[in-house]
């Protein structure tokens, strides 16, 4: 079971890295423009997106998306380390590593809010794994492995999943 947990964590981490640092190199349909992700920006003021937001949707989607993004990671890490504190530390360090790499390699936005929400997501994941207990471990592993396969298929299908003539810019 431990090997499968490591495999599930590896698969989910690969999805996380692909969605945070590699979007400049592939498409899934026309969900994003790869060129937009080839830049460097550092945002160090917490919750700054709330102040300058044109609508409530973008910040809410960003904050909740980053939080939810790290919940499965927190679940899987907790299954391996068995400690909420260690899981939070691993979540924080993983998120910090992603944010630093995004900045160093000019692959998007390095944002303190992402670091905060990702760390909170890892905490929530650890709490979920702890609350549900070992009986659910096979479920979490299966979901993470399935997500890895589905994501690989979506990347493989790439632009065939969308129609460029129907793309609408959303502000």
TrEMBL record:
Signal peptide range in chain numbering: none
What sections of the protein cross the membrane?
60-81, 88-109, 115-132, 139-158
Keyword list (alphabetical) reads: Membrane, Transmembrane, Transmembrane helix
Asked whether the keyword Plastid is assigned, the reply is no
Give residue ranges for domain VanZ-like: 10-132
User: Does the record bear Transmembrane in its keywords?
Assistant: yes
State the InterPro entries in the record: Teicoplanin_resist-assoc, VanZ-like
Q: Name one Pfam family in it.
A: VanZ
Which PANTHER family is this protein grouped with? INTEGRAL MEMBRANE PROTEIN (PTHR36834:SF1), MEMBRANE PROTEIN-RELATED (PTHR36834)
For this entry, the protein name equals: VanZ family protein
